[in-house]
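User: Okay, second chain of the day. Same drill as before: sequence in, structure tokens out.
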Amino acid sequence: MATKTEEGAGAGTAARSDGTPAEAGTAEEERTPGTKGPAAAGAADAPAEATARTEGEAGEESAEESAGDVAAPAAGAEGRSPSGVGQGAAAVVSAALGLVSLTGGWIGTVAGAREQLVGQLRTSTGASVATQLKEVYGDSWHATAMWAGLFALTALITGVVVLARPAFGVPGRPQAPWIKSVAWAGVSLGVIGLLLAVLKYSDALIGLPSAG
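Assistant: Same drill. Structure tokens below.
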């Protein structure tokens, strides 16, 4: 009886000893797939996320390129638009020519001196006083008035062209106020200078003194 009891106890112990590794092995096998499952799923999702990021970056680059292509023609159009420098320069020239028409300028002075010299050479010592006045002084003053009138007419035409330029330029681009002011000054001086030149050339203003 004691022997059977010991054998039974040994058999039970052996059974428990054999059962424990088997159960442990089964548990490990069951835990192993559970552990590997999320890792495999994460590895599978990684390419998809990388692809999504690549597509997003490509979309952003395409949007930036499209915006750059749209902005480039606009910048080119602004670069091609007139800056008004030429109009400003023409307005200043018009005003300067108007001033020259009032003062006569060195060209008018030289032309008057030349006509005076020619008159002295043509006039004999025995000529009458009226003839000497006309040849020596009259022609000289007329030459000065003629050059002053040419300067005034040029100033007038230049100023009018500057003022009329915006009508033939870019629509919606106003002319700078200072350009208009200087151009109007040139036109005004041109009108005054042209009027004085005509009056002087026709001897209506500061005519020759009478010889009598």
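Confidence is low (pLDDT under 50) at residues 1-44, 70-79.

User: Thanks, on to the next one.
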